[in-house]
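User: I'm curious what two different proteins look like when written out as structure tokens. Can you demonstrate?

Assistant: Sure. I'll show them one after the other, since each token string lines up with its own sequence. Here's the first protein:
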Amino acid sequence: MASKSFRNIKNIILLLLIVGGAWALSSWAIDPEIITVNGKTVKIIDGDSFKDGTTEFRIYGIDAPEYRQTCKDANGKDWPCGKSARQGLAAVLRNGSFNCEVRARDKYGRTIVSCASGDDDLGARLVEQGHAMSSANFDSVIYGREEAAAEKAQRGIWQGSFEKPSSWRASHPR
């Protein structure tokens, strides 16, 4: 009788371990940064790019910290600005109904897109929130007004010091 109860307890424990393991595996394997753009499921790569299957898209007019990049806060302490930029892009896309238009292709084969939801420009929003810098197009800064507002309010990357994403990439090749 005692051995039958012991076997039932073992089976219950085994079942709980299997269920718990399956939950842990699914939590690890399923990327929470998957959202919909243009009616398609996309995966966020970093603060200024996302992927639809094998096609990689880069948002026009901005440059965000790389995913592994860190910045300094107002107290000089490191903070994961690259991860924050990725989360910022995911949050904005998740809370809006953005449609993207192709502008060009870059030297890496990525599709450069401008995305908007009505009058809400994705690049402008990310720069104003401090998740990205405005990049230059010939002689003009694309989102200069939004960047100045973020810097003045010390939002995101502007709360302390940071290395420009282009400089960080140059010193941290893949």
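Here's a second, unrelated protein for contrast:
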Amino acid sequence: MKKSLFTILILFVITVANAQTQRWAVGFKLGEPTGVNLRKYGNSNALDLTVGTYGALLGMDRLYRNGTYRNVGIMLNATYLWYTPLLSERMIAYAGAGAQLNTRRYYPDQFSRVGAYTNNISIGPSATAGLEYFSRRTSSSYFLEGGSYVELLPAFLFVSPQVSAGIRHNF
């Protein structure tokens, strides 16, 4: 009886361990957007979260609605990715879709003389594609990615390009 119970327990632990493989990465992106990045890898997919700045590289002093953006905003981006090995097991190509939430100061033209602004919150879908290289010697990975963010609210179909590079620590 003890051997049967022990065998069942071992099989259960092995099954649970295989079903819940924990592969995480935390890192930093530099570009558009710039921020802290967290990624949870699955078998051929990943969930990618970034918290950081929006508009610092490609969007400063940009025409927007009936006015301009003149500052850097804060953003939250969540993207579901699919990936596949490319050329070797240490390099992957990935692409995915997600959503982005931003907050930024908006300067309408009618207030441009007095410097008045409103705080603008925007939301819309994002798309990302990139390459990631996993170091052989360390638990680091290096990536380069690009894509776009398409604002739906409040400026319908306002497109913002996104390009960034960074490093992640994988654990």
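A detail about the second structure: The CA atoms of residues 24 and 40 lie 5 Å apart.
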